[in-house]
Design a protein that fits this description.
heterodimer, A: about 150 residues, alpha+beta, four-stranded antiparallel β-sheet, about 25% strand, B: about 280 residues
């Protein structure tokens, strides 16, 4: 029994480390989380943002869900309502969007909150800051996109 | 024999005190630890600091393990490195206190794993090897900007432009729009040089951790922690590494133990200050 527990203790960090290595290199888990073995190897997680994209007949509307602007815009009731609805999902959306369950009814409620009956499509976008000092460019790149 | 027993007893006591302090700080800094668990963890830590009883301490570690492990499992994708290490240590101490396992040098194994993975991830990350990550850390000018100013002539002007540009870029929806930013050749070289130095230093650190005796190993670890403090004020993580080092049974030098203890307390104090203000 002692040996089994000992092996369990030895294999646990290896399992977590391998999972983190795979998810962060082959999927979109941030290197900062999931056991955090790759922190300070990638642009900070705070530079990831969450947006609601609403495609209308002739235009596209974007609602920034996270991070909230400072100072908090008191009249932005829609953002506050969406954030409240997605409170269980926000952290996961930022750290590992591919692992989020988009079947969660909260996303349907977000569509209802947006109150855009003419909308053709709703999507959740995760943006991340992409900096390139060789090309001297900076961009808010789409890291992940999912229709809801 | 008596001095050996005393040394072991005092080391064990030091480690336990530090662990309770660390749990108290982590309970309030980690997003994964939700209400009311943070208060249970901090309360247990406080009671253990004030009152020492072996059977109570045993139960405390079991509760720590359960609550921390539950929080980690529920929000694994949000867990930072130090949170995983602290959860693991709680589990290890629980197994040890209940005599379910015999002591082994888990601390050395964890330190090598943490350092090895960190280096591997740096090598695999394009942003790190190209110097983009270092630029993203240096340009906001929060940490040790005077050092960058000494090396790069127009650092402050570049930093001000960058901050303005980042807030503009982040306020735009994600897409294909690209902004141009001016980067001085000297700054580009400075970032790439830092990235290479860090990788080389970490490789040296892994070599030392693997092949040198405990005393040398932990002196270098301390140097590494103080050296990297310029770029990464991760106080809780550093305190966790010091605590891990203190649990190494092969480390006999009282002087180095005291240095590690002082460093851990210093970082914990800084983390608690960060939490308060």
């Amino acid at each position: 029994m002692k040996n089994v527990l000992r092996w369990l203790l030895v294999s646990l960090p290896i399992l977590v480390a391998v999972a983190q290595l795979c998810f962060s290199n082959f999927s979109n888990l941030t290197r900062w989380k999931g056991g955090g073995f790759g922190m300070y190897t990638d642009i900070h997680i705070n530079h990831r943002s969450i947006w609601l994209k609403i495609e209308l007949e002739d235009t596209t509307k974007y609602v920034k869900i996270q991070p909230v602007e400072k100072p908090w815009a008191p009249d932005d009731k829609l953002v506050a309502a969406i954030r409240k609805e997605l409170s269980q999902q926000l952290d996961k959306l930022v750290s590992f969007p591919a692992a989020v369950d988009f079947e969660d009814p909260a996303f349907a409620r977000v569509k209802a909150l947006a109150n855009e009956p003419a909308a053709k499509k709703f999507s959740i976008l995760i943006g991340h800051l992409a900096l390139d000092i060789d090309k001297e460019t900076i961009q808010n790149k789409v890291l992940y996109s999912h229709d809801i | 024999m008596i001095s050996e027993t005393l040394r072991k007893y005092s080391s064990q006591k030091q480690v336990e005190i530090l662990f309770h302090l660390l749990v108290m700080v982590v309970a309030f800094t980690e997003h994964s630890v939700k209400f009311p668990y943070q208060y249970i963890l901090a309360g247990l830590g406080a009671v253990n600091l004030a009152y020492r009883n072996e059977s109570f301490s045993k139960s405390t570690f079991a509760v720590y393990s359960l609550l921390l492990f539950y929080s980690l499992a529920r929000d694994y994708f949000m867990a930072a490195n130090h949170f995983f290490l602290i959860t693991y240590m709680a589990l290890y101490f629980t197994f040890l206190k209940f005599k379910w396992i015999e002591e082994f040098r888990y601390s050395h194994f964890l330190l090598v794993l943490v350092m090895g993975l960190a280096t591997l991830q740096k090598v695999l990350s394009d942003d790190f090897s190209n110097g983009n990550f270092m630029a993203s850390i240096f340009l906001p000018g929060h940490s040790f900007s005077f050092m960058h100013k000494l090396m790069i002539k127009d650092f402050f002007a570049m930093s001000a432009d960058y901050k303005e540009l980042v807030s503009l870029v982040k306020s735009a929806p994600p897409g294909d729009q690209i902004w141009r930013m001016d980067v001085l050749d000297s700054f580009r070289f400075y970032c790439k040089m830092h990235a290479s130095i860090i990788i080389i230093f970490e490789l040296v650190m892994i070599f030392i951790l693997l092949f040198f005796r405990s005393e040398i190993r932990y002196v270098f670890l301390l140097l590494f922690l103080y050296g990297t403090l310029a770029f990464r004020p991760e106080y809780v993580f550093f305190a966790t590494l010091c605590l891990l080092s203190l649990t190494d049974t092969k480390l006999e030098s009282i002087g180095i133990r005291n240095c590690l203890l002082f460093t851990a307390l210093l970082f914990l104090g800084l983390a608690a200050l960060n939490l308060t203000f």
